[in-house]
Task: structure prediction
Amino acid sequence: MPTIREIYSAAQIQERIDQMGEQISSDYKEVDRLVVIGVMKGAILFLADLVRTIKLKNPLQLEFVRLSSYGSGKESTGVIQTPYLELPDIRHKHILIVEDIVDSGRTAKFFKEYLQDQFDPASLKLAAFLDKPSRRRVQVEADYVGFTIEDFFVVGFGLDDAEQYRELPFLGEIVNGGAK
Ligand code: IMP
Ligand code: MG
Result:
């Protein structure tokens, strides 16, 4: 059995998400309809906790897409697959993308450009649970970042290694052997 070394505990994650929620709430306070788009599957735990901390004058709208660039390996393939990309008419709305991690940046860049072209949003921002800036291959920055991490492969809190460990309530690193 592989050992998973904890990097951020569940409590540390919740504390950081609360801070992000406060910032987002203050930035979007007066907006008439914020559309939050979660990028599945990785963002699911982060998104569920984050939206519960966002307090606005008006209700927000939740949407989901599923994008993938990794396949099941640890290296980005560079090709973005779009297994689910159905969105209602959200033209000219304020859009906040919620992602698990910005790694090479390819997924985030692809999706930002897609939304810009399709919906000409009133504003378009990105909230990422994690940022690995040392791995960037394309120019893209998140507007809200939970934690900036070094170049190591992490699992838990939505992130997987070959579809395992997404359910862990903390963020960890596999220290002896992972799924191949
Ligand atoms: P991108 O390279 O920025 O396009 O990131 C693509 C996807 O790779 C992310 O949405 C994650 O699902 C996955 N990914 C990147 N780094 C890690 C990691 O350390 N652990 C688990 N998944 C990762
Ligand atoms: Mg993944």
